[in-house]
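We were asked to recover a plausible sequence for a given structure. The inputs and outputs are reproduced exactly as logged, with field labels preserved.

PROBLEM: sequence recovery
POSITIONS: 255
GIVEN STRUCTURE:
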């Protein structure tokens, strides 16, 4: 095989691996951001549960103060009832006492409902805190793995880039420019000639061109996609394809 063809095959493999590693390195920060976003949601649930419990407790204290105020009113009315002169005055004061006692019962029911809410919210808070603890541990593990993977990828990138530079320096300048141009346009710059076709664009090759490609002794370019063609002999046990026969019959040919 022509040395430049062999170098370009290796160069294309390295360029693919470099692109894969670069994509992986670029994706890792996004993955970490997604992980941290999930953790932020769980933290928000914990804070919401805490805020709800705090509000319930504040409301309960307010209701307890209201009960104390009503109890003071009841004591005041009962004290006043001892000094009244008429039955109507006494009945009026007892009426006020009954109203205050009814209000106390209503408030006590609200306090009980609030206590049940607090109990339920404390259960939610406990579950959210347990989830947060588990997620934090898992996320730290994932972030550590992401940092390790990034370090490994960057080390491989350094090795591949060194090898890439070495290969590029050994390829003819004109051929390298063609390689770079097609790679940028089509993401691959070389294609294997197989079954009389360019394996990338699937356009038939002229018989003589296919036979020439099989020798791997010259730089040949697909007329259709402009990729540099090369040929790989069949693996052991596979049938060897026959050379293309020259004829004048009409056949699909690369344009």
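RECOVERED SEQUENCE:
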């Amino acid at each position: 095989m022509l040395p430049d063809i062999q170098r370009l095959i290796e160069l294309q493999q390295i360029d693919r691996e470099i692109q894969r590693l670069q994509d992986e390195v670029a994706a890792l920060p996004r993955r970490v951001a997604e992980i941290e976003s999930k953790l932020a949601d769980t933290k928000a649930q914990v804070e919401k549960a805490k805020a709800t419990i705090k509000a319930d407790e504040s409301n309960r204290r307010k209701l307890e103060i209201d009960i104390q105020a009503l109890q003071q009113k009841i004591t005041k009315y009962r004290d006043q009832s001892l000094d009244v002169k008429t039955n109507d005055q006494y009945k009026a004061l007892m009426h006020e006492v009954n109203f205050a006692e009814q209000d106390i019962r209503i408030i006590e029911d609200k306090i009980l409902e609030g206590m049940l809410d607090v109990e339920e919210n404390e259960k939610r808070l406990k579950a959210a805190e347990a989830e947060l603890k588990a997620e934090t541990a898992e996320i730290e593990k994932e972030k550590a793995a992401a940092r390790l993977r990034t370090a490994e990828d960057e080390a491989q990138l350094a090795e591949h880039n060194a090898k890439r530079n070495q290969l590029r320096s050994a390829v003819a300048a004109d051929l390298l420019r063609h390689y770079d141009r097609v790679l940028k346009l089509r993401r691959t710059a070389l294609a294997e000639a197989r079954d009389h076709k360019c394996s990338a664009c699937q356009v038939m090759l002229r018989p003589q061109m296919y036979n020439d490609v099989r020798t791997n002794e010259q730089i040949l370019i697909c007329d259709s996609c402009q990729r540099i063609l090369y040929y790989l002999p069949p693996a052991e046990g596979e049938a060897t394809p026959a050379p293309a026969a020259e004829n004048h019959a009409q056949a699909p040919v690369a344009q």
